[in-house]
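One example given next:
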Amino acid sequence: MTAPTTPAPVPAPEPARTDDLTGRVPGRALHAPVIAWFNEHARDLPWRRPEAGPWGVMVSEFMLQQTPVSRVLPVYEQWLARWPRPADLAKEPPGEAVRAWGRLGYPRRALRLHGAAVAITERHGGDVPTEHAQLIALPGIGEYTAAAVASFAYGQRHPVLDTNVRRVLARAVNGVRYPPNATTAAERRLARELLPEDERTASRWAAASMELGALICTAKNETCHRCPIAAQCAWRLAGKPEHDGPPRRGQTYAGTDRQVRGRLLAVLREAVGPVPQSVLDRVWDEPVQRARALDGLVSDGLVEPLPGGLYRLPHT
């Protein structure tokens, strides 16, 4: 058996030509290589296919928030098969959206997507609106989702800043390992400055830079030898300095209220009718935490209390 060959390291390049005013690598030096890489290496994902349409793009953007592609794929396919248009979802009670959400996590996203579907049906005749201002006016849709749908579904020119894009820009342009914990005004300004002028190129850049962060410029174990902009990357040229900000801790799940909420919702999703309090009491031994988690679900609109100590997924 032939031993696998180790990829040759990227040779140390001359410093990339920078903008005379900002000292940064200009966006045009990043656009072409990243888009060319994307054209060759982009994953074939269902929401990128023409048949997905704007509604498929919107559904994917809700599902992909804080959730990996591998977990989203089966739920996405089932969702679009059941509700191929916003009006199909809008006709159902919101609890059905929560039920179909399954174990994707952060189930309030299901309620928000249902609310957006209702608004699209009532305000826009069942078609996902094309204008960014109309998108951001929908319930449950913020700046990121509105920009992503406008860009990926309609090919418009908007800065799309998810975690992957922010990490690519932090490293390639600002020379730091990680972006700030929360998106800053400076990051938004940089994303706008780097946006290609041409709409089609801008939307392609948005998708390509996101894919680069997801596959190559990852949070851990980045593969710089495969990166199309390694020669221009400010972080790599600086010797990959370590993160000097607050420690970045991964989110825990076991034993948290999130875990208890998930178990309570699992019982309600699987039930065909209202569930007695006594059944919910069996999912978690600690009564104070269990009550707190159930109260939180009710407060968030994910669970509806009924007379007689019964609970169900929301119907209105």
In short: Residues 136 and 143 are 6 Å apart (CA to CA). The first strand starts at residue 275 and ends at 276. The longest helix spans residues 108-124. Confidence is low (pLDDT under 50) at residues 1-23.
